[in-house]
Amino acid sequence: AQSVSQHNHHVILSEAASLELGCNYSYGGTVNLFWYVQYPGQHLQLLLKYFSGDPLVKGIKGFEAEFIKSKFSFNLRKPSVQWSDTAEYFCAVNALDRDDMRFGAGTRLTVKP
Amino acid sequence: GAGVSQSPRYKVTKRGQDVALRCDPISGHVSLYWYRQALGQGPEFLTYFNYEAQQDKSGLPNDRFSAERPEGSISTLTIQRTEQRDSAMYRCASSPGRANEKLFFGSGTQLSVL
Questions:
Q1: Which of A23, A83, A108, B113 is buried most deeply by CB count within 10 Å?
Q2: What is the pLDDT of residues B9-61, one digit of tens each?
Q3: Residue B106 distance to chain A (closest CA, Å)
Q4: Do the Cβ atoms of A94 and B45 come within 8 Å?
């Protein structure tokens, strides 16, 4: 089964700082890639997804992620974070020959005002 | 319904008791997934259904865990003879089609086994 690794457990940034959260997966076949976000007190919701085509995908709230196939990576970026971005971020992978979705352990982002 | 509904929201039980966790997916959603999430961890896949068929149960930790979705809508995750290590947030998600579409998550059931 595919597995997902997120490198940072907790990231603390000041407002306006740039963000990059790492995500690597291990699976040799074709995959769909996702970032989900969980704001405090809320349930998981989709931030962005990659299926095919342009490896740079844009999501909601100014987030983007780049799929680098050779590195098995799908890092999440945002040029300038806001206090409201404080949340937990989960990378997820779906292998096309399977119907399940595997999640990473998550990265907690704290943005200081 | 408007979203994925899970009940109960919180469940406290004594070790050795059986518990049943309910998930009511978004109406018309074909796929339904169960995940378990321990504190500080990501959602851990347990099992999923396509309509009423359980397609993959490889993530169920042991035979004390079972799930059903008899009519292709509401699903129940049952844990028999609960143990303290079963304490976690149990999350249900549904999808209109397959997993390579967007998953819609419920608020989860927080299970505490004393």
A1: A23
A2: 999 999 999 999 999 999 999 999 999 999 878 899 999 999 999 988 989 99
A3: 6
A4: no
